[in-house]
Amino acid sequence: MEPITVIEGTALPVDRSDVDTDQIIPSEYLKRIERTGFGPFLFGEWREDPDFIINDPRYAGASVLIAGANFGCGSSREHAPWAIEDAGFRVVIAPSFADIFRNNCTKVGVLPVELSAESVRALMDAALDDPQTRIVVDLPNRRVTAPGLDESFPIDDYTAWRLVEGLDDIGLTLRQEEKITAYEATREAWLPTA
């Protein structure tokens, strides 16, 4: 997992609320067994509309996704944050997130940032007016800044630490590699290995 400290970039404004995980990554794309390769299918059904914003070349390369309230609702599909991350987004900003989706994001290195509805609307309008609007998300200081906006966001200390250090669940376990190796060296050979 790539560490997150300060993310600065342009944004893709998806001006919709209650976007569920099936809309983020439709089920027909869930046949893969890898965690990668889902980015091209992000918002798969909506992409079929040539006027859907992700098809607008002015938003190519955006690293921040801005969306309406209750983003990531629906199923607990881990593929949704995988698709977001694989499409190049490091941060999702919305007024609220589904709890499981928020948690799944933090496990793959996508920072979910909750801001007030008014602030999200201001960021969305700025990105719609000028696709080159720069947004800075500073995780260590827990701040989002953009033209006309400077606001703090909540995140618990443990999750912030994991994201800054770039530690997913495997990375956390590997921090104990010396202890694991020492234990395995003294373990009785006749015991099961798996």
What does this entry show, briefly?
With 194 residues, this protein is of the alpha/beta class.
Full CATH superfamily name:
Aconitase, domain 4
Count of runs of 4 or more consecutive helical residues: 8
Strand order of the largest sheet: 1-6-7-8
Strand content: 15-25%
Task: Please give the share of residues in helix.
Answer: 25-40%
Total beta strand runs: 8
Q: Per CATH, which architecture?
A: Alpha-Beta Barrel
- Low-confidence stretches are none
At CATH level 3, the topology is Aconitase, domain 4
Description:
- The protein has 194 residues and is of the alpha/beta class.
- The chain has a single domain, classed as Aconitase, domain 4 (Alpha-Beta Barrel).
- The longest helix is centred in the middle third of the chain and has 13 residues, at 117-129.
- It is 33% helix and 16% strand.
- The chain has helices at 21-24, 44-47, 79-86, 99-108, 117-129, 157-165, 169-174, 177-186; strands spanning 6-9, 11-14, 64-67, 91-94, 111-114, 135-138, 143-146, 149-152.
- The strands form two sheets. A four-stranded antiparallel β-sheet has the order 1-6-7-8, covered by helices on one side. Strands 2-3-4-5 form a four-stranded parallel β-sheet.
